[in-house]
Every structure is written in C-alpha cells, then in structure tokens.
Amino acid sequence: MFDDFFDDGFFTPQKRVNSMRCDIKETDNDYKMSIELPGFKKEDITINLDQGYLNISANTQNENEEKNDEGHVIRKERYSGSMSRSFYVGDQYEAGDFNASFDNGELNITIPKKDAYIEDHSSRIPIE
C-alpha cells in the first residue's frame, strides 16, 4: 500500500542535480553571485582562489533519519555529501578582493570589476 502511495509522482522527488545553483548579476562596479546551499552551515563551506579560478565547495553530513516502528528508514530526501563548483574569474584577482556572506542557505559573493590583463602568447610574426 505505502509503496504505491509514495511513488505516485507527488511524493517522488524529481531527479536532483547535486550542483550549486548560481545567479550572477552584473552592476556598474562589480559582479554579484548568489549560490543556493540549503541545509548547509557557514562552517560547511570553503571558498578558495587558485590560478584565476574561484573554487567553492560544501560538505554536510545529515544523520537524521525517519524510522518506522521496526527501525527501517521510510524515506530519506535530505542531501548528505559534498559538492563543488569552479568559476573562472581571471588572474587579476587576489583573495582579498572578494566579499562573501552566508545567510538562510544562500552564499553571496561580490567580485569587483577589474580590467583583465591579457598576456599575448601568440607566435604569429607580423608582416610589415
């Protein structure tokens, strides 16, 4: 009876992608990233800058389980594990350029606009 009840489409979760959903907005002076991390705590999140890549990772372990009278898990839908995402921001940034905050399951990162330094690695010989 319960098998059909929980699998009727309403209670069955859609296939979930274990990635961080991110919105990026551009203003005149900066970029604002807003990343969904529901169920995570500030302590679970790590942000690093490495060779022009902004790397964001989050790790959580959820030990809460619903059990029936016999102690079997009926349903477990909360995410437990780790996820990460990288964004190329350029070599012109240092870690101190970023401003990050976390509130209500949302990580907000502000990145100031800077002129990109483009190093010319071409081997083309100009013709005069």
Automatic annotation (TrEMBL):
What InterPro entries is this protein classified in? A-crystallin/Hsp20_dom, HSP20-like_chaperone, Small_HSP
Tell me the PROSITE patterns matching this sequence.
Answer: SHSP
Q: Where is the SHSP domain?
A: 13-128
> Pfam families given for it?
HSP20
- Give the similarity note: Belongs to the small heat shock protein (HSP20) family.
Protein name, per record: SHSP domain-containing protein
